[in-house]
Amino acid sequence: MKHLRDHHPRPQLTREQWQDLSGPWAFAFDDQNVGLRQRWFESPQHFDRQILVPFPPESHASGLRETGFHPVVWYRRTFQVGPAERSGRLLLHFGAVDYRARVWLNGRLVAEHEGGHTPFTADLSDALTDDGEQVLVVRAEDDPRDLAQPRGKQDWLLEPHAIWYHRTTGIWQTVWLECVPWTYLQHLRWTPNLNRMELHLQAQLNDAPAEPCDLRVRLTLRGQFLAEQVVRVIGRQVACTLSLQHLPVNPERDDLLWSPRRPNLIDAELSLLQNGSLLDQVASYAGMRSVAVKGGRFLLNGLSYYQRLVLAQNYWPQSHLAAPDPQALEREVRLVKDLGFNGVRIHQKIEDPRFLYWCDTLGLLVWGEMPSAYVFTEQMCERLTREWLEFIRRDYSHPCVVAWVPLNESWGVPDLEGDSAQRAFARGLYQLTKAFDPTRPVIANDGWQFVGGEMIGVHDYATQGATLRERYGTHEAMERTLQYVQPYFRNLLTHGEARADEAMILSEFGGLSFAPGADQAWFGYGTVTSSEGLLERYRELVTAVLHSEVLMGFCYTQLTDTEQETNGLLTAERQPKLDIDVLRAINTRSSQSMPGDVLKDIHHDAQARHDSRLK
User: Is the CATH number of domain 185-286 2.60.40.10?
Assistant: First the structure.
């Protein structure tokens, strides 16, 4: 049992009693899809291999490294249940299983879920046997050639090609057990209101209590009391608003607000009480911050903020989409910050919640992007929409998440210009996202063919800084580019669209491959053969972007080499190709569109040094 938030698979809703089921499981391929008919969930005889969970069977870390087409896989293991686990409910949580999962305990079906990147839970309480050993079986179905399935960068061909990678089949995030009471807190949703300096909570119980109970919420900041409130609970849903007793002026306001420079987090303790007796208790946290777009500017906490992002596939050579260990997620966030970026665009992946925890804790902006499908069908629309809403629900309360991107580069909607149904779907995703989360900006389709959103993301892999200046240096140049230039053979605006007050972000550029002694490397958007050349070209491109008077931020492609893509600032093993201090100096230079951003950072650095001396 563990209770370390930085290792907990769900850091924003933790209890002391949980058990990680990572480790060796029995395993079987079911290439002929006969396991259901033969009832493999009732017998161990077909499980002829062993796999290390949570690593996918295609990866080295799993112990298998089976990269061929295996559309159906099975997992089996046993675990013990003691008296403590029988005193209430026993929940089995899956961080992610790609793509369609069924779960049995002792031969009884306890859960089904479709969606390869979002979590689900099984209540095991009614399926437990009287003796101590329990048999858990999981079946995962992941058709590698189903292009209507949201799959992100997982290749549908046998071997990786172009910009797509080896697949991640089956379990690829933590599987864990949790002991809870019969009535328990199931979901929390935190919404800050900076104008009123209030923090709003919506809490959901697993079921309506048999008789009314009370929810006590206590907030602290770095151990200091902030607020407390007790509310009556009579159904599954309960809400309360906590006023934070801070003056809305500096320095108290800066001590409370969350930003990459000062990632203040408010700790929350929630207790569910009935007639004075404790039913359930969980720990959580929230961040007081606001994000918005106004007058073409991105605003963080009401002030203009320049986004310096890096594109991150968050893919590891030994473990693929799964992190090699929990510590790797922290290291990844620290590397991004060391390079001088203040944010990360997680590309075509819904990342492990522990990664977002470290972004919350260390201070890093995140764009949440949905893994794409690659054909437009009714089934694709249903699948992507359902998983997209699960994604928003899961990550809504993370202060680090500052933008939503449901579609990338028209993937899944390839005829966006000519097909009114595809345009309706893209615009519908934008409106649905705003209905589920009105607090964050949205880019309905990032890269080109803008169809709606508060920001316009442009992908332009021009290899010369002069070209970027010509296209994006001034407001006039930007308008000309939006109307007439096709950086990747696609219109930046769909027919009938025009720029209004959206913030302009160069959300993909660069992509420089480093190939010493080679004439060409695969895959990048320009190849250099020396570290000096890489540094010179990188400085040229970033400087050109920073000199734009209209861009409100950038996202450089990319953080690490990933399989055949050799265009990372770091190798696939996370080794820097250039001096990190030099890169940080380039990335943190003043921008023409927001020169005061550097002055603000200098102020925060001075304040941080002052706070350190006080400690």
Answer: yes
Class of the domain covering 302-611:
alpha beta
pLDDT, one tens digit per residue, over 392-407 is 999 999 999 999 999 9
Q: Are strands 100-105 and 108-114 parallel, antiparallel or unpaired?
A: antiparallel
- Furthest-apart CA pair in the chain: how many Å? 75
**Alpha-carbon span 120 to 131, nearest angstrom:** 26
24 three-class SS: strand
Please say whether the dihedral angle defined by the alpha carbons of residues 107, 108, 111 and 115, taken in this order, is positive or negative.
positive
CATH number of the domain at 22-173, out of 1.10.3430.10, 2.60.120.260, 2.120.10.80, 2.30.30.100? 2.60.120.260
**306-355 confidence digits (pLDDT tens):** 999 999 999 999 999 999 999 999 999 999 999 999 999 999 999 999 99
Tell me the CA end-to-end span of the chain in Å, nearest whole number: 33
Report residue 199's pLDDT band, with 50, 70 and 90 as the boundaries.
very high
**Amino acid (one-letter) located at 114:** E
- Residue 3: pLDDT over 60: no
Lay out the sheet containing 133-141: strands in order across: 49-53, 23-29, 72-80, 133-141, 100-105, 108-114
Quick one: tokens of 346? 């997680």
Residue tagged 């799993």 (tokens): 62
Residue 313 tokens, joined? 């596939």
Rounded Cα gap, residues 577 and 360, in angstroms: 27
Task: Identify residue 234 by its one-letter amino acid code.
Answer: I
Which residue intervals of the chain bear CATH 2.60.40.10? 185-286
Cα 520 to Cα 185, 515, 516, 524: the distances in Å are 56, 7, 10, 9
Amino acid at 5: R
HSE-CB for 405 with a 13 A CA cutoff: 31
Give ∠ CA 148-30-48 in degrees, rounded to 5: 145
Please tell me the predicted confidence (pLDDT) of residue 251. 57
What confidence tens digit (pLDDT) does each residue in 188-198 have? 999 999 999 99
pTM of the entire structure? 0.94
Supply the DSSP symbol for 590: P
